[in-house]
Amino acid sequence: MSARTAPAGSTDQPRAAQPQYVYGVMRATEAPEKGAAGIGGADVRRIVLDDLAALTSALENAAVRARRRDLMAHSDVLTAALERGTVLPAQFGTVFENGEAVVSEFLEPRREELRKLLDELDGKVELSVKAFYVEQAILAEIIRESPGIARLREGTRSGPEAATYGARIELGELVAAELRVRGQRDAAAILDRVRPLADAVELADEPVEHEVLRASFLVDRKHLGAFDETMDDIARREEGRIRFKYLGPLPPHSFVSLGGQR
């Protein structure tokens, strides 16, 4: 059989006839012939079309639920593949009827698009940065630097609960507004440091409570060291005030997510 229709790296034709879960796409020269366990513990194999390879595993049932273990398996397969080369992640739950459908309905009609994306993302990975205020530290800072808020807070602490209800509502609104102002300012300062090291940035629309920044950065591997050093420096400067959750390298989920026929 030609590589156009055969699942490369696998002679297990009955399993190839089963529904195929697709994790992502790589260059055929970089894709592992057999990867770690995927959804449901199934072996991950590649299905090749010319210079493209889809990372897939067989399913007993085409209906895939977003359970934590399956989400983790999806992520783990792509993270392992990233160690071998450039990866285009597929959306969680991308399933095709069988191995031939992966080629005819996905790889073949989107061949040029996939090649272009692989070229554009060559050598690039995603880094995730989340920053949160340390609650007690930022509240103390606001009170220390905002005399009006400090006076209002003192009044609500010394007066009866019923009598200070309106003042407590006002205090909460003033603190929330100050948090927004400081959050925007601190987020901008962090971005000013790291944005020049990234090819692209995706920012979360709505921060959660006490969140300063939630962003994904598309970074060339040659800039990973500089990005790490910059984040270390920022974290040291903000220690005790802002805590960071910094993850990566990751497949570029935030910058490409391939869908397909379910």
Please tell me about this protein's structure.
The chain has 262 residues and is α+β, with helices and mostly antiparallel strands. The chain is 40% helix and 24% strand. The chain contains eight helices and ten strands. The chain has helices at 13-16, 68-82, 99-107, 111-120, 135-145, 147-158, 165-194, 224-237; strands spanning 20-27, 34-37, 43-49, 52-58, 88-89, 95-96, 124-133, 200-203, 211-220, 242-250. The strands form two sheets. Strands 1, 2, 3, 4, 5 and 6 form a six-stranded antiparallel β-sheet that branches. A four-stranded antiparallel β-sheet has the order 8-9-7-10. β2 and β3 form a beta hairpin. α5 (135-145) crosses α6 and α6 runs antiparallel to α7 (165-194). The protein starts with 12 loop residues before the first helix and ends in a 12-residue tail after the last strand.
Nutshell version of this structure?
The chain has 262 residues and is of the alpha+beta class. Helix content is 40%, strand content 24%.
Write the layout of secondary structure elements.
Blueprint: H1 13-16, E1 20-27, E2 34-37, E3 43-49, E4 52-58, H2 68-82, E5 88-89, E6 95-96, H3 99-107, H4 111-120, E7 124-133, H5 135-145, H6 147-158, H7 165-194, E8 200-203, E9 211-220, H8 224-237, E10 242-250
Antiparallel strand pairs: 1-4, 1-5, 1-6, 2-3, 3-4, 7-9, 7-10, 8-9
Helix pairs in contact: 5-6, 6-7
Number of strands: 10
Q: How does the major sheet shape up?
A: 6 strands, antiparallel
Helix and strand element order: HEEEEHEEHHEHHHEEHE
Number of helices: 8
Strand pairing plus helix content: what structural class?
A: alpha+beta
Strand content: 15-25%
Identify the overall geometry.
elongated
Radius of gyration: 24 Å
| Poorly predicted ranges | 1-14
Tell me the distance between the termini.
26 Å
Please give the share of residues in helix: 40-55%
The chain-level mean pLDDT equals 87
